[in-house]
């Protein structure tokens, strides 16, 4: 029985990861006209983590707190991914150098604010998917 619950949770998490990858890739294509496979992975990780924030706390934090923590995680993940993909590997997936208040061209205050707004649907989508798959 325990093995089945682990397998079921793995499948739920993997489906949420795939949804995050597809949704983020689609948003990037709509906004920039193109995306990169690394953004699929980053989007998947972010949806799993941001959507699962409420399971890390004894009581579910208020939605605004989840959104702020989500934006902090997404910004941190974007910075780490940017250092790997753009700086170390030189792939030039994105460059925020021309946007004010950027850090090494990898993250910017403007996009950090955007991640706050994107965290709201991320939390709701993850909760919906997890609930739908738990029935």
Can you describe this structure in just a few lines?
With 135 residues, this protein is mostly helical. It is 73% helix and 3% strand. Helix 2 crosses helix 4.
Walkthrough of the structure:
This protein is mostly helical and 135 residues long. Helices cover 73% and strands 3% of the residues. The chain has four helices and two strands; from the N terminus they run αααββα. Strands 1-2 form a two-stranded antiparallel sheet. α1 runs antiparallel to α4, α2 (37-51) packs antiparallel against α3 and α3 (63-88) crosses α4. The longest helix has 31 residues, at 2-32. It is globular and about 45 Å long. The two termini are 17 Å apart. The model has no long low-confidence stretch (mean pLDDT 93).
Mind telling me the C-alpha Rg? 16 Å
* Biggest sheet layout: 2 strands, antiparallel
Count of helical stretches: 4
Residue-averaged pLDDT, rounded?
A: 93
What percentage of amino acids are in beta strands?
A: under 5%
H/E element sequence:
HHHEEH
Distance between the termini: 17 Å
Number of strands: 2
Gross morphology = globular
Class based on secondary structure composition and strand pairing: mainly alpha
Helix content: over 70%
Q: What is the topology, as strand order, of the major beta sheet?
A: 1-2
List low-pLDDT spans: none
């Amino acid at each position: 029985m325990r093995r089945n619950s682990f397998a079921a949770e793995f499948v739920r998490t993997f489906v949420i990861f795939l949804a995050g990858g597809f949704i983020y890739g689609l948003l990037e294509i709509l906004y920039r006209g193109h995306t990169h496979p690394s953004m699929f992975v980053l989007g998947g990780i972010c949806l799993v983590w941001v959507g699962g924030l409420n399971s890390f706390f004894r009581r579910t934090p208020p939605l605004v707190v989840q959104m702020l923590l989500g934006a902090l995680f997404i910004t941190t993940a974007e910075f780490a991914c940017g250092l790997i993909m753009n700086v170390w590997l030189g792939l030039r997936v994105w460059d925020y150098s021309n946007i004010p208040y950027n850090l090494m061209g990898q993250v910017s205050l403007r996009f950090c604010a955007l991640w706050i707004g994107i965290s709201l649907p991320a939390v709701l989508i993850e909760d919906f998917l997890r609930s739908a798959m738990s029935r």
